[in-house]
Amino acid sequence: MGIFSGILCFICFCLLSAKAASAKLHLKRLDRILIKLHKPVSAFLIITCTVHILYAIPILKNRDSLVVISGIANVVLMVVLICLCHVIKDRKKKMLWHRILTILMAIGIIGHFTAYIIDFNNYQKSVANIQFADIDLEKVEDGTYRGEFDAGYIYAKVEVEIKDGAIVSISLLEHRNERGKRAEDIIDDVISEQKTDVDAVSGATNSSNVIKKAIEKAISSLFMQYKPYPFL
User: Fold this and answer.
1) CB 163 within 8 Å of CB 141
2) Are residues 90 and 143 in the same domain?
3) How far apart are CA 50 and CA 228, in angstroms?
4) DSSP β-bridge partners for residue 99
5) Largest CA distance in the chain
6) pLDDT tens-digit readout, 69-109
7) Domain containing residue 192: CATH number
8) Would you state the torsion angle of the CA atoms of residues 2, 171, 193, 179, taken in this order, to the nearest 10 degrees?
9) How many domains would you assign to the chain?
10) Among the three residues 110, 128, 146, which one is the final residue of a domain in this structure?
């Protein structure tokens, strides 16, 4: 829904921006149509932008700082534009600021979209590069330990209890995700099969792999901690 509302915001902005182009090109018929659409489209833009923000707030931790900053900048510019349109009475001055802020918003939207694409591609690469190693649990000393893995859009932190060379329990301390809640069932499979490389939960493959990797990192850290150095 967040992506869909973002696309609607972009379409509304393009329609509103087309008004300036139609006036410059002396497309009178199109200009009249856009004038009639200006207020309802502006209202719809505000609504969709609000929806986009509401859906974005819970997942801000999963996004790159540039995505967040550019998004906030666009919201601020839109609010300033709306306020100035109602505060400034002089038509020429109003139109000047309207054009300046519209251009800044266009730059901001392009920056926001570009940052999102880069961030999403980095997330896809991070998840695609996840690999699992075989770990001999018998070599891991008893204890309760923590591990975490951050793939960008998905983050998992777990607590693993090892006893007598077996995984006794796994607690999921944190799982930041968007549509991967069902992946949390993977914990039961890991305990049942006593290995991290189990089949992913259908429909939540990425979250499953991130949780499994967090478990593996917890166990791996234990193994590395007690592994003797060659020179000892």
Assistant:
1) no
2) no
3) 57
4) none
5) 86
6) 999 999 999 889 888 877 888 888 888 888 888 889 889 99
7) 3.90.1010.20
8) -10
9) 2
10) 128
